[in-house]
Amino acid sequence: MAARAVGLLASLPLCAQRSQVLRPIHRLLSCPRTVAAEIKREEQSSGSVETGSEGRTPKKTFSEVQKERREQAQRTVLIHCPNKISVKKFLKYLSQHGPINNHFFYESFGLYAVVEFCQKESVTSLQNGTRTPSMGTEAAIPFRSRVFNLKTKNPSNPTSEQSRVQCSIHAPPSSKKLLELLCYAESIDDQLNTLLKELQLTEENTKLRYLTCSLIEDIAAAYFLDCTVRPFGSSVNSFGKLGCDLDMFLDLDEIGKFSANKTSGNFLMEFQVKNVPSERIATQKILSVIGECLDHFGPGCVGVQKILNARCPLVRFSHQASGFQCDLTTNNRIALKSSELLYIYGALDSRVRALVFSIRCWARAHSLTSSIPGSWITNFSLTMMVIFFLQRRSPPILPTLDSLKTLADAEDKCVIEGHNCTFVRDLNKIKPSGNTETLELLLKEFFEYFGNFAFNKNSINIRQGREQNKPESSPLHIQNPFETSLNISKNVSQSQLQKFVDLARESAWILNQEDKDRPSSSRSQPWGLAALLLPSVVNSASLAKRVRKKPASERIKSLLESIKSSGPENATSTNGKRTVSTQA
């Protein structure tokens, strides 16, 4: 590692919590060529409220988005700033090293600035102009990174331009605030889109996630020069919620690759390497070394845990500057492919993400999911259930994985560890759905569908998009889309599945019974989606009592049948606006 520090490695408070509130508070665009793209990205991140996929513009592939984000992160630095600072002078000072593309401030453990230059050379120039801190009685480890500490030369004599930067909170709203926003919505469709807008990852939060991966890549590159650290999971699949963990994948596949036209003659040169008995042992050794580096040399990396005997070995740590709880794995390429598949499904239709976010929020409100491993249903399982439900609509809203495979060409072919992970990667090759059902109808019928699903004999399979006989006796069976012999919900217990079914039936009943016009007497009265998120909406004791009284829940089943027979025209208008019911 280089023997020059980039900044003053001041001691910061340990990150004891899994995630911290990140509050982006300012941004400046200095390169005119990026303004339109920035505005467009913000419009995309706000979430579309249109139904269906009509009027689509060409969309970037998952790999194109990852490449663009990674290049942005490589020319970005993270700077810990004083609480009071002259933003104008700060930017002028940094501009000595090159033009600034954009920047923003946020609060995690103190005030931080994320600054993206227009060229990578500006980062090197800034590093060359940074000194190693003097620690007095302590010793500084001279590690050269892109995490800096800014100090004013005369802190006791602040100028009039130095002031506390105004914060605009970009954290998810509190439960109380979210319920208020939902109560003031115009329709249930509007409620689902509002919830999506409030909970989805912001542009700034996404940039910070890619930057954090890039900073960890700098550390890993000390041993593996051409390695790449890629985010996967919720951070990139378009279903990430503000505050979610940051999953990272250490990609070593590019190391040692060479171009055939660069070789000539009768000889072939290979690196001399050490051999180990298995790929798993190699993964454990690599992660063990990276974990030690993060613990001893990584600025802001605290609470490092090397969990090497897990099914998928990983290094877990807190990145205190960003506030993210991070999991670093390697040899987990199928997980990255799953992220790409979910990204495609989320981009195909604006209703997909809105429905997934709402179902996940509903499940968390009733403790159906948990951040602690156990017998609960996971967010990934819920997402698979929503995708399967949308594949079953008439006409289908989402294509099956097999149909995406048929659209693939030679460049899309992908086999990982013997598993066929091939599907079309170009979104523009996928025909939009002609389905125009409203979110209100889809939400209600999601609960109806799974409230009456034959979990005892059928499995969920998004590859074929149809119910199949369960191959094993687990209460809930959802086939892994790529490792088809695996059940992604094998952990779910019978009691947790029954709780899901009971709540789904009750939620369908509540949506059907509710007056179709928003209460005029009090806008704060919970209705629609807001009513479903209240813990008091479903009383567990009374619900269990009703279930014991009628084990088959015949009353609710018959009600759901009557809902289906009445048709969607009595439930909602085609534009998703709430209408007055004519039924008694």
UniProtKB/TrEMBL annotation:
A Pfam family matched in the record: MTPAP-like_central
Cofactor(s) it depends on: Mg(2+); Mn(2+)
A single GO molecular function term of this UniProt record: poly(A) RNA polymerase activity
CDD domains attached to this UniProt entry: NT_PAP_TUTase
Gene Ontology BP terms: RNA 3'-end processing
Alphabetical UniProt keywords: Magnesium, Metal-binding, Transferase
Entries under InterPro entries matching the protein: MTPAP-like_central (IPR054708), NT_sf (IPR043519), PAP_assoc (IPR002058), RL (IPR041252)
Highest taxon listed in the record's lineage: Eukaryota
Annotated segments matching region Disordered: 40-69, 559-584
The protein's name in its UniProt record: Poly rna
Segments forming domain Poly(A) RNA polymerase mitochondrial-like central palm: 188-346
Domain PAP-associated: 442-485
Signal peptide: none
Compositional bias segments (type: Polar residues): 563-584
GO CC term (a single one): mitochondrion
Residue ranges occupied by any RL domain in the UniProt entry: 61-130
